[in-house]
């Protein structure tokens, strides 16, 4: 495997050199970086032109100027990275850091959510092939996939931002809306449940009643003004997660894994109130430390419970601990919603339409977190709606192909449970094509969503690339290409290694 990795990296290095050379030459020859100064009527225009020529080495031909840029990039290996300056005289390395941070903040969560939801929907539609649920999901996903991103962004601004902000003035839900939403979710639950008519009616009816009751409660108590989960909802969610995660990861017959998950859930419930004192002085390093500590402690509890497969119990308990901790953190963020919404900078309209943060907001860790959420909400939804269709369809087709293989029929004939057949045999092999798609998408994701960034006024990697092209500014364009190209090489290599991890029949050599 080491030989394979080294060979791939060496080949990718030379391909990357050729690609960056062509990109630099094409960008440099696409226009005149001095055009704005030549048209200027400023008395010192000649001096400004001379200064820019010296700053950007414009007196050197582009095919030689590339090697000056390449030498600055080579300095990154010895801690002296120099990506040059843009036409405005700003260091490109500094601009790149800001743009990359904005883009990672924007697209990372959207990519993770799109992959998770897309894979889950793809698997459920494959298991309910040719059902009403399958046809409905197919129609909806392709509908959003075909919509222009700028139009989706405008709709989100109108109905989620402006509409929801207006709704908060009097947050009561009309009875007709409650009935329609409850029935819609009931139909979705019935489609997912499958089986005979009785089973679908029970699932759909239960989902509709629970949804209707929850919406009626939220409307009567004006929950949207001061949202919270509370200890009761957190406790029920923690116990539900313990059973659900165990059922998928280890199976409910694995009692030790179930007991480990329930132990983690009960521990989280017991610590709910003591943690409130710690949350008052929360910081980002402390938050990350608690997250890592939760995973390690939960895994240790699972390993302690043991069973015939200690690591399976540890994995299951760690997932339950992580998800339960997320629910508790969500409850704490929600408790600061009212303080954020009524602050002098927000003024009762919390859902933002532009930018990455509210200027001069202030506040503690939780208020800043709510502010980040409100600014991320619309562009994240836009990216998810556009990208989720491809993950759904690839997962569905791959899962259907795997389910028709001989080894799946053999596993069922041996008497293995359906969970074991789907999770241990079908799912891993079905993920191989999806892993390829995800690896190819990483470079494009970090490259920035140019249109989305423009609509929502995010100055990320997409804006860096677009502004560089418009101003005939090679250095920012090459910084963009350097990051996205490097990530494309790395993640394609990771995809090859993931193949071997997902399917032992694949050998990398």
C-alpha termini separation = 5 Å
The global form is globular
Provide the β-strand percentage band. Answer: under 5%
Main sheet: strands, sense, barrel: none
Q: What do the pLDDT scores average to?
A: 86
Helix coverage percent of residues? over 70%
Q: Count the E strands.
A: 0
Rg (C-alpha, Å): 27 Å
Give helix and strand order, one letter per element, not per position. Answer: HHHHHHHHHHHHHHHHHHHHH
Derived from helix and strand composition plus strand pairing, the structural class reads: mainly alpha
- Helix count from the secondary structure assignment: 21
Spans where pLDDT lies below 50 across 5 or more residues: none
Summed up:
The chain contains 21 helices and no strands.
What does this protein look like?
This protein has 509 residues and is mostly helical. Helices cover 76% and strands 0% of the residues. It has a domain at 111-387. It is built from 21 helices and no strands. The longest helix is centred in the C-terminal third of the chain and has 39 residues, at 365-403. It is globular. The model has no long low-confidence stretch (mean pLDDT 86).
